[in-house]
């Protein structure tokens, strides 16, 4: 009866308790960081001696933080759009194409997700230094698009595989051009996949640290690079404030995703 | 579907060719394959042609220690992650959806929260004067703060934290695919819960454990951020060493040789995993 929730007996209590502990473990750092960002102790004493908003004031008083966040947003948005468009085109070929080496091609396009990112980071760093793209926004966008591409391809191919092609064919039989049929029949049908792709691709760039550390220059820093730099100096509570805003962003992204998925699937 | 009369219409027979994949292929070739291959070539040409970089890496005790640390941490992290993830995945697979969605929500929140944020939280939690040491001292369990950070203990805690979702989520899928009837049959035939677990549930979930465990192991081998921040300078892992060789020491030959070793091990394990689960199952993970 091990897979019957209602008939597990005492084992259920034990497993539920353990699951609760693990959930608490997963939640602990996130909640902790948010509480800490409102604590008044510069040395991050916990529980804090008092509550304050001064770390948020310090955060917003330093234009470098805002600038880094804007740079990150710009790069992540561009990389996500590129990855979704390129990934969408590739997905049609990967799912429906009939050519030799299709599985190899799929494997190749997904490799950036598997290869340790530090290897790619130093490779693209050396390459960009040579061709003059080092420390440029274009270089950042290209590198992050490469890393985001697998995260776009996976949900889109999954959605496309679940879509019955006869519906597209029916549109063609009824007089639509193949392009029109794709645009007006297939794309709306796989929009959840495309939406997931956009979110994953955005996060892949927005949270990316390793390539960013190598690519960054004093004038071009993404938010993770800025946090990384501060972390290496001290554990200032300002980082907790910045982190809490990132947690807020994650939460809103989760809620928006859930809402949009619900709406789209209707 | 292929037997459908409609598909004899010439306009429908045209399937999508390789054309759509060309932009992606160009991007990956130009900005992924070429740079990585160029880097690997550098490992046998920089500063002079030959295998001297590999000889240095394999001949020096300092580097041997880094390799050993890396494999040790990856092994321990994988083992702990599997053991912790299994009961959680088990519960998630059979829990009432209302309760399950709360746990899933927490897992996703943890997974989607910025990596540096999570690592920063662990740096603060684990430090000498951090909450964990304080609490343990306050309740009288220890009299001296435990060294939880700047060593492999810290790295392991932080890495297990990060890897757990990657193990739990695929494992839930594996466990859900097991027919509960097999276990009911075992119980009817008189198997004790322990026997049923050991001889039915565990073997049936082994493919999922192997696939998830391998993924966690591979990811841990090449992980950079968390080991660097929680491990301190004396417990360097491979990815951090590679970054340091390039960034601070500007030793491109040695750095790219170490990168090649990491790439080789990763790709070999990845190929093994593809064998185990098949490309489709694996990429369905997100």
UniProtKB/TrEMBL annotation, chain A:
Q: Tell me where it resides.
A: Cell inner membrane; Cell membrane
The protein, known as:
ABC transporter permease
Which keywords belong to this entry? Cell inner membrane, Cell membrane, Membrane, Transmembrane, Transmembrane helix, Transport
The domain of life for this entry's organism is Bacteria
Offer one example of a GO biological process linked to this entry. transmembrane transport
One Pfam family linked to the record:
BPD_transp_1
Question: Is Transmembrane among the key words of this record?
Answer: yes
Q: Where is the ABC transmembrane type-1 domain?
A: 69-257
Family the entry assigns = Belongs to the binding-protein-dependent transport system permease family.
* GO cellular component terms attached to this protein's record: plasma membrane
Q: How does it sit in the membrane?
A: Multi-pass membrane protein
Q: Which Gene3D superfamilies match?
A: MetI-like
Which residue ranges does UniProt annotate as crossing the membrane?
Answer: 12-38, 75-95, 107-128, 140-160, 192-215, 235-260
Automatic annotation (TrEMBL), chain B:
Specify the domain of life of the species encoding this protein.
Bacteria
Give the GO cellular component terms, alphabetically: plasma membrane
Transmembrane ranges, per UniProt, are 21-41, 66-86, 98-116, 155-179, 200-225, 245-272
Keywords (alphabetical) are: Cell membrane, Membrane, Transmembrane, Transmembrane helix, Transport
Q: How does it sit in the membrane?
A: Multi-pass membrane protein
Domain (ABC transmembrane type-1) ranges: 67-273
Query: Could you provide one GO biological process annotation from this protein's UniProt record?
Result: transmembrane transport
Give the matching InterPro entries. MetI-like (IPR000515), MetI-like_sf (IPR035906)
What single Pfam family name could you report for this chain, choosing any that match? BPD_transp_1
Instruction: List where in the cell it is found.
Output: Cell membrane
Family to which the UniProt record says this protein belongs? Belongs to the binding-protein-dependent transport system permease family. CysTW subfamily.
Protein name (database record): ABC transporter permease
Which organism is the protein's source?
Answer: Mesorhizobium temperatum
